[in-house]
Amino acid sequence: MDKWLDIFSPKTIVLELLLVGICILDDPSVISVFISENPLSRAAVDSATHGVIAAMSWLLVTNLQMTTRNLMEVFLSGVLGMVIDIDHFIAAGSLSLNAATSLTKRPFLHNSSLILIIFMLLYSLQQCRQFSGILASVPWIFLLAWTSHHMRDGIRHGLWFAPFGSTQVIPKWLYIGVISLCPLLLKAVVMLRWSDSDHSRTGSSTDHQGTAVI
Ligand SMILES: [Zn+2]
C-alpha cells in the first residue's frame, strides 16, 4: 500500500506543480517578455522547453530517485523530447533555420501515428530480447517523450495522424492535463508490475533503487 502513496508523495506533487507551471508559462506572450525576437533564440528556447518537459515527465516516473540509471533515463527522455524537430531540417534539406521553419507541411516525425507504431516496435523488441537496464525502459521513455512533444506542438498546430487526418488545435487545458497525468499513469503501471521477484531489478520504495523498468 505504501508504494501507491509514492505516486502522490510531496516531492511528486511539487514536481507536478512545477511541470504544470512551466506548461502554463510556456506561452508566446510570456516568452516574448524574456526572449528577444531573434529566431535562433526562440528556436533554442522552444527546443529546450520540449526537452525540459520530457525530462521532468520521466523524472516523475522514476519517483525522483537520483540513481545513475534514473538520471541517464531522464537525460535520454529530454533528448528524445527535443530530437523530433530535426525532421524540420531533413524536410527542408537544409541547416538553415529559416528554411526549417518555413515548411509548407508538417515534417514526417510530427506524424502522431508514428508514436504508436514505433512504441509497439520497441515494446515488441523488448519483449523478444528481454533487455535489461536502461534498454528495458526505452519504449516507455520514448512514448512519454514523444507524446509530450506532440501534445505541446498540438496546442499550436493540432495533432496530425497520417494517413487519417489532423485534429483541431488542442486546448491548453487538455495539453496540461495529458502532460501532468501521463507520468502518473506510467508510474502506476510501474507499480503494478512490481513484484517481490522484481525488486532486485526494478527497485522499490523500500530498497530505494528507484529504477523504473516496465
Ligand atoms: Zn515539434
TrEMBL record:
Its main location: membrane. It comes from the Eukaryota. The chain crosses the membrane at residues 12-35, 41-62, 74-96, 108-125, 132-151, 173-192. Keywords: Membrane, Transmembrane, Transmembrane helix. The keyword DNA repair does not apply. The keyword Transmembrane applies. It is found in: Membrane. It is a multi-pass membrane protein. This is Transmembrane protein 267. It comes from Ridgeia piscesae (Tubeworm). The lineage of its organism: Eukaryota, Metazoa, Spiralia, Lophotrochozoa, Annelida.
